[in-house]
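Annual report, structural modelling task.

Input specification for the 2-oxoglutaric acid complex:
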Amino acid sequence: MALVTVRLGRDVHAIGFLELIRSDSSIPPWQLKYPKLVLRESGSVPEELHREVQAAFLTLHKHGVLFRDLVRVQGKDVLTPVSRILIGNPGCTYKYLNTRLFAVPWPVKGSNTRYGEAEIATACQAFLKLNDYLQVETIQAWEELVARDKANIDVVPVCIGPDFPRIGMGSFDGQDEVDIRNRSAYNVTLLNFMDPQKMPYLKEEPYFGMGKMAVSWHHDENLVERSAVAVYSYSFEGPEDEEESEEDPQLEGRDPDIWHVGFKISWDIETPGLAIPLHQGDCYFMLDDLNATHQHCVLAGLPPRFSSTHRVAECSTGTWDYISQRCQLAMQNIRDEADNGDVSLKSLEPAVLKQGEEIHNEVEFEWLRQFWFQGSRYKKCSDWWCQPMTQLEDLWRKMESATNAVLREVRREGVPVEQRNEILTAILALLSMRQNLRREWHARCQSRIARTLPADQKPECRPYWEKDDPSMPLPFDLTDIVAELRGLLLEAKA
Ligand SMILES: O=C(O)CCC(=O)C(=O)O
Ligand SMILES: [Fe+2]
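The model returned the following structure:
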């Protein structure tokens, strides 16, 4: 098929197909195909908000607190081309591409965060203000979408009667409204920055000839189901770039000098994708299930660009409150013994021991190793995570002693075979997993690419200790212990 590009109004291109366009409509034609994608051009955003937000981006950039993430994709360690920082509700985290980002807190009511610099505090405040603004805009756009849907249904009244209450056009029932609010309650924003001039190895968009990508096709992960995403886009354009260019729309695809966001239907490379140009201060919103039914990508333009991507992170297992409660649950089975750090266990029930080892793995791999893998970047902005991480590490250390106490029990002479087997069966897979994950994290920290990072971003393999460390009850490397436990289990079956 010949590559044809059609101008769909305001420089929006559907690349790869030809379609007749109704030019009499006041809504841009792409809106008919993408009702859940909303664009708000910069003119509709208050000037003062633009000024504050743009200054905030520059402040964070100046203080060097946006970082490229060393993520893991299909078993490979790769450095993201864009630099990022997560700002959001205190104690919130957001996980993407096997990387848990820890929110630098924004100053919500009742919080009292110390920031590294007063300017950083001001910047976080600006993103909270932007968040509030985008949340209101999202709810309004979503309500309009629902109202339009309902109006369309009302055109053909199939089932009108006493069982089918209609309060009138544009209104919708309470549940809808609560859902819309919950799914617009952004708890974090992930900020992105990239200067394409400094990034000469950008990938080409593979399906529609859309040019260089800053972020490849993806769905946003780890979000509350059907929740919205709102994006503020800030590219460093000179005034001359803002004018509509007059080149022949029939001949080429999107303007490579201008940043765009691309959309395509998931699992579909036949239906043409959509590329929406983003000028300085433009915002776009992905409503409802758009992020699930479609993929999006970011197409690089010429100038450097920031974006602030506001999300409803699914953080039921991703907050400080959550993990500290989990650790408290594990502590309930531990009794301190005198002063040497030794512990004894209150219950030897297999289910209780299993839960303890699960929490042990969770705090070690989802929190401590994730945090220290990202070097010392977090303390540059605020001290929020310092004390929680110290506390988690202390609790984790106790869990090492608890595991040691379980091992003492299964090795003890005179434990009934049945009971020992139940314990072994409950914990063996978890210890084997711990061994595998430690090896993987250790390798990730040693990788060639990890070594190229500057000192404050160098991954730290923590916790880590040497074989003969007298302060630790168990070795870092659990190979021998896992083999021993397997042996005990087989012995009993023989
Ligand atoms: O910068 C943008 O417009 C969107 C970036 C994006 O898709 C992401 O960070 O997930
Ligand atoms: Fe995204």
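Residues 1-8, 16-24 have pLDDT under 50 and may be disordered.
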